[in-house]
Write a structure and sequence with these properties.
heterodimer, A: mainly alpha, 5 helices, elongated, B: mainly alpha, 2 domains, two-stranded antiparallel ribbon, 2 strands, flat
Chain lengths: ~170, ~180
């Protein structure tokens, strides 16, 4: 039987990609570079109370990304047990990219453009940074989709290569 | 291997695959006898078990590994007065894990309370938490959650890609 249920991997990969992308955003842009925080355009961190206010919302943001990663791992684990799911590296990597790009696009559109609760690099030229962030998301989506499409030819389910070894041990 | 430890035919009682368990137990309780066991009994058995001429199908090897390979082959062996663990102790004992978990829990509680006690300018932290609750908590929470919910919905939508549906004729036959 050929495994064709690619969606199980794509679904879990999108969750994992969005979670890991959220962590990359939070760790790199919020904490290391300190370009922005979750509500830094609404409540600029000008004193310690405002800094702690934003820090708490950053913590909640990280909690949501953590939940996404846990859900993604759980779905991927379930997918690995199914014989109709192709265990394709290209599909997984593509869906991780797709999830990351999708998160950047949605988060950029809602939080940066529509609500304006924070911007990528506030100050002069913040629109350029925001548009570049959206463009990065679109590029990731395109690359992810292309990688998933390349992985459609993969039809081997999980554990396919382990079976001969197991039968050899029984002898 | 000493002949007193081995019998030629399969036997019952305290002999397991020809090895006198009671004799080994008695000897391993004495540190000076441990090296004798290592050189004369266990090492030949381990060598035999790793090859194909083990008639017990690896059971003897499993027995030897369970009883003493780490104790016997350990570099700590020359320490003559080293106290050997009793035969009833086991590395996978649930008590051991419960003990470790309890110690870890105590450290977490102590660490959390110490950190809370050493909080720099706690008044600012309390003020920030009050502000978070008072200043549109639900709205901000919904705003923070929205991108994740959208991505989650897209993820759920892609789950059906490539899934085979049962043919309609088969459904009719079943019904």
């Amino acid at each position: 039987m050929k495994a064709t249920h690619q969606g199980a991997i794509i679904s879990s990969g999108i969750l994992l990609g969005a979670g890991l992308g959220g962590f990359a955003d939070g760790i790199l842009l919020h904490q290391i570079l300190q370009w922005h925080s979750m509500l830094s355009s609404v409540r600029p961190p000008t004193d310690l109370v405002e800094m702690k206010y934003n820090m708490l919302w950053d913590g909640l943001f990280h909690a949501f990304t953590w939940i996404m990663v846990v859900l993604g791992i759980w779905r991927l684990w379930a997918a690995g047990k199914r014989p109709d799911v192709p265990w394709s590296t290209r599909t997984l990597v593509g869906s991780l990219l797709l999830g990351w790009g999708l998160f950047n696009l949605v988060e950029g559109l809602i939080n940066h453009q529509l609500l304006g609760i924070h911007h990528v690099h506030p100050g002069d030229g913040q629109l350029v940074w925001d548009v570049a962030f959206l463009a990065l998301g679109l590029i990731q989506i395109g690359a992810g989709w292309a990688t998933i499409a390349a992985g459609r030819v993969d039809r081997t389910p999980s554990g396919h290569h382990a079976a001969p070894l197991a039968s050899h041990r029984r002898q | 291997m000493p002949k007193s430890l081995v019998r030629r035919a399969p036997v019952e009682g305290h002999f397991v695959h020809g090895v006198d368990v009671e004799a080994i137990n008695a000897m391993t309780r004495q540190p000076t006898a441990t090296r004798q066991i290592a050189t004369e009994c266990v090492a030949p058995l381990e060598g035999a078990s790793s090859e194909t001429n083990d008639p017990s199908g690896g059971t003897v090897a499993a027995f030897v590994k369970h009883r003493s390979p780490r104790k016997v082959k350990s570099p700590l062996l020359p320490q003559r007065n080293r106290k050997l663990p009793s035969a009833s102790s086991s590395d996978s004992s649930p008590r051991r894990w419960i003990g470790a978990a309890s110690v870890a829990m105590v450290f977490v509680v102590l660490g959390a309370s110490t950190t809370a006690g050493a909080c720099p300018r706690c008044a600012d932290g309390q003020a920030a938490r009050r502000e978070v609750i008072a200043d549109g908590f639900s709205r901000n929470l919904a705003t923070s959650l929205l991108p994740f919910l959208i991505v989650g919905a897209v993820s759920a939508g892609t789950h059906a890609i490539g899934r085979r549906r049962a043919p309609k004729n088969a459904e009719r036959e079943v019904s």
